Amino acid sequence: MIILLKIAFQSLLNRKMTFILTVFSIALSIMLFLGIERIKLGAKESFSNTISKTDLIVGSRGSGIQLLLYTIFHMGNATNNISWSSYESIKNNPEVSWTIPYSLGDSYNGFRVIGTDQNLYEHYRFFGDKKIEISEGNVPNDVFETAIGFEVAKKENLKIGDKISLTHGISDGPGILTHKDKPFTIVAILKETTTPLDRAVYITLEGMEAIHIDWVNGSPALPGKETPQNQIKKENIQIGQITSFLVGAESRISALGLLREINNFKKEPLMAVIPGAALSQLWETISYAEIAFQIISIFVIMIGIIGMMVSIYTSLENRRREMSILRAIGASYKSIVFLLISESFIISLFGCFLGYILCCGFIKISQPIILNKFGILIPFLNLQSTEYLYLIIVIAISCIIGIIPAIKAYKNSLSDGLSIKI
C-alpha cells in the first residue's frame, strides 16, 4: 500500500497544475468552513465572557435582548430612560447587594460614552472573576474627569491629561452637536480586556448631567447662554434619569425575587433580565443565520470535492495507457481502485492542511480589525474535537467519491491493450 501511495503521489506531481488547482479549491472551501466556525466560537465566547457575576440587568420595558445589547455590548439604543427615584428605590432594597448605574446617549468619535459611578470599578466582572483595572491614572471622580478604554486610547492616540469633547447622540465621527464648551480631562486609561469595555469612554453620572445642563427638550442652549464650565459644581448637580443599571443580589434566590418585583414595578414600566437567559435568547435569534452559514460552507466543501472527482475522472482518458501497464505488470482490481482512492485521499489531505494554514492567516490579519469594530475576539486555530471530526469526514467523503473514477479506470484497463491507439 505504501508503494501505491507513492505511485499516486508521483502521478499527481506529473499533473502539477491540475493537482495544485484542485487542492487550492478544496483549501478555500475548508478555510471558509473553519473561518465560520471560528467566528461563531469567538462571538459566543466574547459575548459570554463580557459580563460575569451580575444577577440582573434593569432597563425600561421592552426587548430583553435589546437591553442586553445597548447596556453591555454598546449596540443599539434604549427606548426610554429610568427615573432616578425608581433606581434608588430598587438600590435600597435589602435584597440588593450592589448596583451599577448606566447613563447612555453620547459618544466620542464613534465610541460610546457611559455615565456611571465608582461601583463600575468595584463590582463589574468579566471572564469569570476579572475586574476592571486601571493601566494609568486614577478612577474619575470630578464632574469633568474621564477614564477611557484601551482601544479608545490606542486608536485616538490619547494620553493622561488630554482633553476631549463629547458628541451628543451616537455618531461614528465628531458629530454635529458637540459639547465643545465642556471638555473632559482624561485621568485614567483602562487595561486591555478584549471586551466592549475597551471601546468606551467613562464619565461620572454628574458629568453626563453637566454637559446637558443647559439643554431644553433635546436642544442645546443658544450661543452665549451656556453655563460656564467653571461654574458647574458636583454638589449642585441632581441626577434626573439614567438609562439602565446592573444588579448584584444577596443570593440567587434573592435575584429571582427581585426579577419578579422589578418586572411588576408600580412606579414606572421596568424590565429586569438575567444576563445568561438574555444571551440564550440572542443565540436562538441568530441560530437560523448560523445554520444558513453552515449549510453554505458545507455546499462549498461539496463543490470542492466534486471538482476533485471531476478532475480525476476527466484525466483518466489521458491515463489509459498508464492503467493498462499497471494491469499488465500484475496490478489487481483492488490495486487500481486503491490507487485512484489514494489520489483522492492525498488531494483532500493537502486541501485540508492548506485550508487550515489559509484560515490561520485570515485570522491573523482580520483579528484586530474584527476586535476593534465588533469586540469579537476570534480565537486562533487550536482545532476543537468537532472540527477534527469535520475534517476527517471531508477526507472520508473524498475517498468514497474517489471510487467513481477508480471503477472507470479499472473498466478502461480491462478493454485497453498496451499499444497506443491512433
Extended strand count: 15
Give the averaged pLDDT, no decimals.
85
Distance between the termini: 34 Å
Strand content: 15-25%
Low-confidence stretches: 418-422
How many independent structural domains? 2
Q: What would you say this structure looks like, in words?
A:
By secondary structure, this protein is α+β, with helices and mostly antiparallel strands. It folds into two domains: 2-47 and 286-415, no CATH class; 56-273, no CATH class. The protein contains 13 helices and 15 strands. The chain has helices at residues 2-13, 16-49, 64-72, 84-91, 119-123, 150-156, 205-210, 252-263, 275-315, 320-328, 333-374, 385-401, 403-415; strands at residues 56-60, 82-83, 96-108, 111-116, 125-126, 130-131, 134-137, 145-148, 163-164, 167-168, 184-190, 200-204, 241-242, 244-249, 270-273. The strands form three sheets. Strands 1, 3, 4, 7, 8, 9, 10, 11, 12, 14 and 15 form an eleven-stranded mixed β-sheet that branches. Strands 2-13 form a two-stranded antiparallel sheet. Strands 5-6 form a two-stranded antiparallel sheet. The longest helix is centred in the C-terminal third of the chain and has 42 residues, at 333-374. The protein starts with a helix and ends in a 7-residue tail after the last helix.
Relevant terms:
15 strands; single chain; 11-stranded mixed sheet; alpha+beta; 422 residues; two-stranded antiparallel ribbon; 2 domains
Question: Strands, helices and their partners?
Answer:
Elements: H1 2-13, H2 16-49, E1 56-60, H3 64-72, E2 82-83, H4 84-91, E3 96-108, E4 111-116, H5 119-123, E5 125-126, E6 130-131, E7 134-137, E8 145-148, H6 150-156, E9 163-164, E10 167-168, E11 184-190, E12 200-204, H7 205-210, E13 241-242, E14 244-249, H8 252-263, E15 270-273, H9 275-315, H10 320-328, H11 333-374, H12 385-401, H13 403-415
Parallel strand pairs: 4-12, 8-11
Antiparallel strand pairs: 1-14, 1-15, 2-13, 3-4, 3-10, 3-14, 5-6, 7-11, 8-12, 9-11
Helix pairs in contact: 1-11, 2-9, 2-11, 9-11, 9-12, 9-13, 10-13, 11-12, 11-13
